[in-house]
Amino acid sequence: MVFLTRILQRAPGARKRGFVDKLRVYVRGGSGGMGLPKYNGRGGDGGHVVFVAKDDLTLKQVIDRTPNKRFIAGVGANATRRAIQGDRGPNLTVEVPTGITVLTDTKQVIANLNQPGDQAVVAKGGQGGAHWSDFLPKKGQIRSVTMELKLISDVGLVGFPNAGKSTLLKAVSSADPKIADYPFTTMRPQIGIVQYKDLRRVSLADLPGLIEGAHNNVGMGHHFLRHVERTKLLLFMVDVHGFVLSMKHPHRTAFQTVALLMKELELYKSDLVDKPAVLAINKMDMTGAGDRAEELLYKLEHFEDSVTELPKDMRPRRQVQFEDIFQISAKEKQGLNKLKDKVREILDERFDEEQNELKQQAMQRLQKEASYGKTTDRTADVI
Ligand SMILES: Nc1nc2c(ncn2[C@@H]2O[C@H](COP(=O)(O)OP(=O)(O)OP(=O)(O)O)[C@@H](O)[C@H]2O)c(=O)[nH]1
Ligand SMILES: [Mg+2]
């Protein structure tokens, strides 16, 4: 059987980037307050900049809240005749997404914020002036830090139950997930490693199936989408014949399942829709699959019109732009090589982009330093 590959190309220049998984910000601890020699008074210490992990927050929201990306804590109060110990400057607490690593420009890890409520001081306040410093205060720590969303794997499998996600994971990696013909076989994420001939390894996360209403906790709920957030690439998977949960539920065509998946993603966090994504149409070995696949491709190409077959509240506002669409049989291991190659191509391309960005940042820093005629302290203390 011939497995066609159709490409719905993104508009040139309209590459992803809506999804932010890395953010560099400026942080500065507050300066200390002045001491008061006459009374041996001590200035208050400057406040710290503290990052606190919060669930359900994205890096994009952090930018929206503070577009200038500068976080500066409060200064300590000067010592006075009435208050010979100046008050401490207030800390600046910044809410950041759970699951990030905070790094210095030299790539030293300041903190891993894995659980909601985890916190870390990312810029210390300066000491208040006192007799040991001639009553002169210290400045707060100044630096740039990068927040990186930690990835659980390179690729995340997104699909309705029974689409064949676990079957695909088993076919392309050494993982041995449970496979069965009833929905919700997979209860928790499982990661497999796909190894390429040149030994490049790509991790693939098999996630529990999603269904319409997942955002309202239907089925397994959309709790697992937080893992999707932490992958570089989404691999959507659909059963070419669609899905039906039970006799009581409506049958959803392959097109409808794709649109409903987009909707669930959007309802979880709208910027997930901007992640790089590919679509695998599975079970192409079954009879009638060719016609169904053609229908799905046609409907995806005429998305705006086709989506009207769903009730209004189930229609995604924006469409995920697939970089490529594959027709495969996970069970019969057909069409899998092309899919694997494309996945790798997208990941490698993205990796290149990251490298270029880092190089550019380094160049900009060097230029800045040269224009000041001095080098800045690039080995600031790591807390
Ligand atoms: N004919 C055919 N059957 C398939 C194919 N891929 C998977 N199946 C069958 O579809 C059923 C579901 O497969 P799974 O891999 O468990 O599906 P899943 O997407 O992981 O399902 P959940 O874990 O419930 O979300 C099993 O009976 C598989 O054997 C395929 O390419 N062709
Ligand atoms: Mg499964």
TrEMBL record:
PROSITE patterns: G_OBG, OBG. It is found in: Nucleus, Nucleolus. Residues 153-348 form the OBG-type G domain. GO terms for cellular component: mitochondrion; nucleolus. InterPro entries: G_OBG, GTP-bd, GTP-bd_Obg/CgtA, GTP1_OBG_dom, GTP1_OBG_dom_sf, OBG_GTPase, P-loop_NTPase. Residues 17-152 form the Obg domain. GO terms for molecular function: GTP binding; GTPase activity; magnesium ion binding. GO terms for biological process: ribosome biogenesis. It comes from the Eukaryota. Residues 357-383 are annotated as: Disordered. Belongs to the TRAFAC class OBG-HflX-like GTPase superfamily. OBG GTPase family. This is GTP-binding protein 10.
